[in-house]
User: Fold this.
Amino acid sequence: MELLPYAAARAEFVAPEETTDPFNDGARAFGALGVDMKLGLSSNLTVDATVNPDFGQVEVDPAVVNLTAFETFFPEKRAFFLEGAQIFGSFGQGGSNSFWGFNTSDPMIFYSRRIGRSPQVDLDDTDFIDQPVATTILGAVKLTGKTSTGWNIGLLEAVTGRETARTRVGDLSETAAVEPVTNYTVARVQRELGRRGGAGLMTTAVTRRLDTPTLRTSLIAIARMYSALTRMCISTASASGWSPGKSLAAASAEVPKRSIPFNTQRKDTSSVQTRRT
Assistant:
């Protein structure tokens, strides 16, 4: 077993854009504590865990101007999510599909950058706002490797915290939730069958504690916006998803039958079905 605790502190001395900003006087201090763990269950199975991880050394994403209707997707750069990531990104691959001439665009069932994303609730009509730039990852655990019977397995569980923002309108100061407590679960099993065969299964789940009207309104609006950008395609690999309280048939009926890129790469949609031949 390996344990790597850390303590980090930093200070910012940046003049605010508005000198009357009540939340920023030009000097800020930040601190964090956490620990990373690695445990080898066998020669081929490894458990990684982290509590309040620090990604301060990760390369910053490039600045982009997105004028399209689609979200910008950046590659994963955080070490915890990179190690063993191939098992989660191989949905629909393996077997004959790994040979030249069988390759097609595969759906992205799991996008790890969702975990620890920037808060998704926009607070409009404020004079000043103090809002976190990212959601805190309270903890995450991951099991990856290969069993003695030849199955590649991957299991990821992560929990992010509730984030709030301070706002000022005139002389009135308030605190509002901008991201709920969220639990992410991903499970994957896959096995090669001979030289040109393969079988696998992947499941994902996202559970959010929508405990305020602001969160319900904003996040449901996001889900509806992205559900309008789904599509259906034909494929030998298939995936389906739906929201609690809505049947799969009802959710599937909302999927428009037109081709739009990034059909599965969006935040919160009621349903998605993909099949490739």
